[in-house]
Amino acid sequence: MSGSRSISVNINPKVAVVTALGTGIVIGAGVAYLYTRFHEHTHLVQQITNLHVSILEVLKKDLTSTQSGQERPCSCGRCSSLSTRSPRFRKTVSFSSTATTASYRTAPEGDSDNNRANDTDYFSPDEDDDEFFDLSADESEGAIVFGSQGDDGRLKREEDQTEEDQLSRLLEQVDSLVEGCEEDQTQAYNLLKAEEQLYYKNAEFLWRLAKSTRNMSCIEEKHGNLESKKTYIFEAYRYAAQALELDEHSAEVHKWYGILAGAKGEFLSTKERIHNGQLFKLHIDRALEIKPQDATLHHLLGRFCYEVAQLSWLERRVAAALFAEVPSATFEETLEHFMAAEKLRPSGWKENRLFIAKCYILMNDFSLASAWLEQAASAPSVTPDDEIVHKEIQELQSKYS
Predict the structure, then answer these.
(1) Are 369 and 357 in contact (CB under 8 A)?
(2) Neighbour count for residue 397 (Cβ, 10 Å)
(3) Cβ(324)–Cβ(275) below 8 Å
(4) How many CB atoms lie within 10 A of CB 212?
(5) Which end of the chain is more exposed for a tag (fewer CB within 10 A), N or C?
């Protein structure tokens, strides 16, 4: 007995316990470890629960304030726009812990589920293991969105403008410049050319590009650069033709296709020029069917009749040989179209008044011709076209006034 006591005294206490309890030590240690971990886990869960309750209280106050139309003051200076929110906007909050991997999200405002707008949905702890605590505000469209980095909860900011909005802004800017001075018209052309690759399949964009390119040809003509004028005319015609392929129901598309078809005639053979003249008339007539109160279209139809009325006997013979039907017009008919344009745009259109005067000259009514030349000269010169026209007005005034 004494020997056994001596041995027990000299044995390490841990070894003695193992000897006494055998495999029971494993069970005892496991129970002790689990108890400790359970206690720690319970404490951590309680902390998260308290945090969850606190945040829900904040959200409830925030949602109540939002629904009542009150603003929440913010010291950052960027949130003043976050005022009254429509019930259609939703607020989502998602947060998780690497210890619990739990995720919570408030239900969308106005959610019809159980008729509770501000209830909380609880998701499986296994859904978003890789989430991190994230409260990010998405201010686009006035919405506040709190989300995680998951695919479903990833923040998505809407663009400030859709592609259509951007095009609308561009065209509005161009329209404000295209009837202006040389610098304005050049700026309009450059703006459109910069976006050509983006909107090359849009008819509204293309007819404006055709118009602006044709304006550039007038600027080149003003400076005596006739070869550059030709280049711009042919380029403009291509844009107009592309627009016509895309939209055959637009008055502006038909108008500018007709204008450019006629403008090309200056650089073509007699046969081609007559053919393009027919194209001009066809498309101006079509545009007038769509938009009968367009002053420019009446002016253009007058220009066509003016040219036809001046065809020589030889030119008519050539036209008759090439085409089955040769158009005809009188100066009286021509004058009617120019007067219609004047009535629709009485503010003062230099070029239209010039052609009214030219009709009276060809009709040998020099008194009325002089009066209309005076009115044409008094109209303001704004565009490069106006400056070219004004020179012709002065030349005719020196002869008939």
Answers:
(1) yes
(2) 16
(3) no
(4) 24
(5) N
Residue 83 clears pLDDT 80, i.e. is over it: no
Structure confidence by residue, pLDDT tens digits, 168-198: 999 999 999 999 999 999 999 999 999 999 9
Higher pLDDT, 67 or 262: 262
Q: Which residue has the tokens 């004058």?
A: 335
Q: What are phi and psi of 122, to 5 degrees?
A: -110, 130
Any residues with CB less than 8 A from the CB of 273 and at least 6 apart, and which? 265, 266
Specify the pLDDT at position 313: 83
Structural contact between residues 218 and 384, judged by C-beta atoms closer than 8 angstroms? yes
Residue 102 pLDDT: 36
Closest CA to 78 of 158, 139, 150: 139
- What count of other Cβ atoms lies within 10 Å of the Cβ of residue 226? 13
Identify residue 237 by its one-letter amino acid code: Y
Tokens at 256, concatenated: 């500018």
Per-residue confidence (pLDDT) for residue 46, from 0 to 100: 65
Residue among 70, 108, 73, 104 nearest 90 (CA) = 108
Taking the C-alpha atoms of residue 161 and residue 232, their distance in angstroms, rounded to an integer, is 32
Q: What is the mean pLDDT of residues 146-157?
A: 47
